Amino acid sequence: MVRGKTLMRRIENTTSRQVTFSKRRNGLLKKAFELSVLCDAEVGLIIFSPRAKLYEFSSSSMQEIIERHQKHIKDDQGEKPVVEQNSMQNLKHETASLMKKIELLETSKRKLLGESLGSCSLEELQRMEHQLERSVNIIRARKMQVYREQIERLKDNVKDLASENVMLLEKCGGLEKQQTSGEEDQGEGLSTESSEKSDVETELFIGLPECRTKRPFKN
Known about the structure:
Blueprint: H1 14-38, E1 44-48, E2 54-58, H2 62-112, H3 122-198, E3 201-206, E4 213-218
Antiparallel strand pairs: 1-2, 3-4
């Protein structure tokens, strides 16, 4: 028979609750004993029933186990403040070091901008001068590089525009040729038609109706 899963909630029935307590208590005491024997562990178990009855198990003296437990708690509580204090000291030291670095950087920045130079020595001024010259050279080199890149881009744009211009001219030339050939064909058609009309003979009659003479007339 398969046992169902026990719901983890208070048993309302008093008799069932007492029976369950007795069974679980005996099982817990047995497990504590097995743990102490099998694993050579120092085990101390204290149980109070709902009626405040004490049940306990200890692999050695219960008093010694309790004293050892209290001593361990005191040692842990004594070590934590020391660790926290060391951590706070480290944080304070790092903060002071960072603040000092920030102050030095701010002072160097003001000097590079030409401010607060009254306390600078000749060597320091020369060092700042060389540093500024190097910075200016780097900036100029970068500026020339940007100029060259822009020129190359403009050249590429000019090439693209020239190619597009050639294509458009070719298209326009083709259209003009088609239009010219069409006009020539139309002109040839008109000249042919006029020549044909000029070759047509026209009959004219000269004289009286009774004796009119038929003469050919060419236009």
